[in-house]
Specification:
Elements (H helix, E strand, L loop, with lengths): L19 E5 L4 H13 L4 E5 L9 H11 L3 E4 L6 H6 L1 H18 L4 E7 L21 H13 L6 E5 L2 E2 L9 H10 L3 E5 L3 E2 L2 E2 H14 L3 E5 L5 E2 H11 L6 E5 L18 H4 L9 H7 L6
Parallel strand pairs: 1-2, 1-3, 3-4, 4-5, 5-10, 6-9, 7-12
Antiparallel strand pairs: 8-11
Helix pairs in contact: 1-7, 2-4, 4-5
Length: about 300
């Protein structure tokens, strides 16, 4: 995807007879890719891209009113307070956005489809290679809100949960992808200390978005893990991204969770995606190979 991708597309004209799909968090990384890919991979839907400016999801009366007017047949709920430090600093806001808003949208969608974005950080990282049936265990406020939201969503057997890992790509704000955060740090002359013993399964957001549209097309319900096919440490991820930006003189330093003094961090939240892979028309990529195959793309 080029760095200057058009940001948000709105719903097509009222004469379009296709069922309406809301995409919340449409100004974020994954939400923007979902909107951008709708014509190719979600063409059965008439998509409405909802940003915070369009609809404040914490204004529950406005949410209820708009839902009553538009009656979306599908909601893909990407909006969240997703930075763990922000959630730790303001638990009340985290619960309102991540749990209460999700519960409301899920309940409003009782007769329709609802796909909720959750996270690999619902796990405590003691096992790795997590499958959908593994029990979550929260280490942070962020994880607590996501686990509670998952429980609310699963009360409706028609609804779906997508747990994903670190997503990369180009976002409208230029700071939502893990690659964008690293690049910004280097542009500002910062050196990054990255853990050699904390593991994730990073994925380009375009594949997360395509996967979700394919799940919506087949009416899949329940929990699905959508992440990259390669387990990488934070340090390994940093090495890969640093090679993309030699002109920034990127600096990375090795660090270990054993030396870390902050809030608890999960050492290995890598996700096993075998379940969803059986439903997809394409292979979920590993980050190393994808970067090699797309050397000309901004990432």
């Amino acid at each position: 995807m080029p760095a200057t991708r058009t940001a948000i597309k709105q719903a097509v004209g009222a004469s379009d007879s296709r069922p309406l799909a809301w995409v919340t968090g449409a100004a974020g990384l994954i939400g923007n890719y979902l909107v951008e890919q709708a014509e190719r991979h979600g063409s059965q839907w008439r998509v409405c891209a909802l940003t915070r400016r369009e609809l404040d999801l914490t204004d529950f009366k406005k949410v209820e009113g708009r839902f009553a007017r538009e009656r979306p047949a599908l909601i893909i709920h990407c909006a969240a307070l997703s930075k763990s430090p922000q959630c730790q600093a303001d638990p009340k806001l985290a619960w309102k956005i991540n749990f209460e808003a999700t519960r409301l949208l899920s309940e409003l969608s009782c007769e329709g489809r609802f796909i909720f974005f959750s996270s690999d950080l619902v796990f405590d990282g003691q096992k790795g290679n997590y499958v959908e049936a593994d029990a979550p265990r929260a280490l942070s406020v962020y994880a607590e809100t996501k686990i509670a939201a998952e429980e609310a969503v699963l009360k409706n057997p028609r609804h779906s949960i997508v747990r994903t890992s670190l997503n990369g790509g180009t976002s409208p704000a230029g700071d939502r992808g893990f690659n964008e955060e690293m690049r910004r740090a280097w542009q500002n002359g910062k050196s990054l200390r990255l853990f050699v013993d904390e593991f994730r399964t990073p994925i380009p957001a375009e594949f997360t978005a395509r996967s979700v549209w394919e799940l919506a097309a087949v009416g899949a319900s329940g929990i699905y893990h959508i992440a990259g096919a390669e387990r990488l440490s934070r340090w390994q991820i940093g090495e890969l991204i640093a090679r993309r930006w030699p002109q920034l003189n990127p600096r990375i330093e090795k660090a270990s969770l054993r030396e870390y003094q902050g809030a608890p961090r999960a050492p290995d939240t890598s996700l096993n995606c075998s379940k969803v892979q059986k439903l997809l028309s394409f292979q979920l990529p590993g980050l190393t190979q994808w970067l090699q195959d797309h050397s000309e793309e901004v990432f």
